[in-house]
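Sanity check record (used in CI):
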Amino acid sequence: MHRIHLDWNATTPLRLEARAAMQAAFELGNPSAVYAEGRKARGAVERARLQVAAAVGARPQDVIFTSGGTEANGLALTPSLNNSGQTYDRLLVSAIEHPSVRAGGLYLAAQVTEIAVTRSGLLDLDHLQALLAAAGPALVSVMLANNETGVIQPIAKIAELVHGAGGLLHVDAIQAFGKIAFSIGESQADWLTLSAHKIGGPKGVGALVLAPGRLPPGPLLRGGGQEQGRRAGTENVIGIVGFGAAAETAIASRESDMERVGTLRDQLERALRQIPGTEVIADQQPRLPNTTLVARAGMKAETTVIGFDLAGIAVSAGSACSSGKVEASHVLQAMQLPPELARSAIRISLGWQTSADDVDRCAEVWRKLSGTLATGGHENYAEARNRA
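Expected output for Cysteine desulfurase:
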């Protein structure tokens, strides 16, 4: 069976340019070594640093490579100092953040406060203002685009409020990277996080990007002087050069890729809406051009994912399974989506390899599953998946 990947927000296939760069890097030495082999490896790392920096309008010296987006987020969420010596002992995070941000980094649980979102998935700016005014300066963390709904936040406005209250802003741009145009300057973020495998790079490499003149947080990993003393440990040379090549390629092709993908996403949503009871979540808000969150009350998300899988299509659920108990995602709970609808939500995300046939096939499978699962056919699909 020809498999169709429609979970691009989870991960992306490795780009040919990234694969070629990584293959060429396999024989490189330790970039901290001073002899020729080390200098060659250092040159490859610094070229990748330049490529990643250029992709978000940053300076190369302000890019800190990490083991991925989770580490980059954890590094950013550190009670830190700005250039005037101000400490930030409060962390405000939006209620729809990635778990690596909601965990709070090095902040204690008592220091972390959630910022509410509206029913449309946008940050509640009134609540943010109230929290900023409640105590001393805070570090605020808000994702640029949500990984489930695709909703894009008004980051520049948020930055204005945060900076006006004497705070700092961290922006998780991992899901937006390569899909919409932005820069660290336009976003007015103090710190920005990125991940390679969301744009066609390898897994296991990411970056924290600093605004010009912004001091880095204290290092999570101490030891050697790698990454200018900001992240100890021998650099993942192969992963880093793959990240650089993927970043350069993703930005160069973003406009044409996302225009085509956006057209396909709209085509898919038109087809889905023709099926009675189907709802597209947050479809009236600015969203990533590749992301659809679709739901139909009466369909269990985890069973729907199994149905898609058996039909040869990879999608993901807007719910998480923990110890056998399925609950609606924290994102949809924060948006106050009715529980029955939230428990049925499925995320479909497209990418540069997605075809019109893939989208048509997806709509066809949703139509068939809607006719079966909404009328109580969940057990049959679960049994079929176990047999598979």
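The radius of gyration is 22 Å. If this sentence no longer matches the regenerated tokens, the check is flagged for review.
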